[in-house]
């Protein structure tokens, strides 16, 4: 029988914030980087003991190609950006 505890996504990588491996993977797949993950979860803002584990896990995800977001992932979709102001004559 598999339990929740056996699920690798339930492994806590940051004990100060309670951030789990699955949360980090989900945020990475949304295109967030280390800083964005830290802001969203509070990871890396306490004792700092999780820094190596989280950086290693993100490197592993990148190498697997999991959710490798295009560099434009942080930019708004075309058509959603404000128009440039009209020039006055």
TrEMBL record:
Top-level division of the source organism's lineage: Bacteria
Region described as Disordered: 64-89
Residue ranges occupied by any BFD-like [2Fe-2S]-binding domain in the UniProt entry: 13-60
Feature: compositional bias, Low complexity: 66-89
Cited InterPro entries: BFD-like_2Fe2S-bd_dom (IPR007419), BFD-like_2Fe2S-bd_dom_sf (IPR041854)
Name by which UniProt lists this protein: BFD domain protein (2Fe-2S)-binding domain protein
């Amino acid at each position: 029988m598999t339990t929740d505890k056996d699920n690798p996504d339930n492994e806590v990588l940051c004990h100060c914030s309670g951030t789990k491996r699955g949360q980090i993977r989900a945020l990475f797949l949304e295109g967030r980087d280390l800083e964005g993950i830290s802001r969203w979860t509070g990871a890396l803002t306490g004792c700092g003991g999780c820094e190596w584990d989280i950086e290693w896990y993100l490197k592993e995800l990148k190498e697997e190609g999991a959710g490798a977001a295009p560099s434009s992932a942080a930019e708004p979709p075309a058509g959603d950006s404000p128009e440039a102001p009209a020039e006055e004559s």
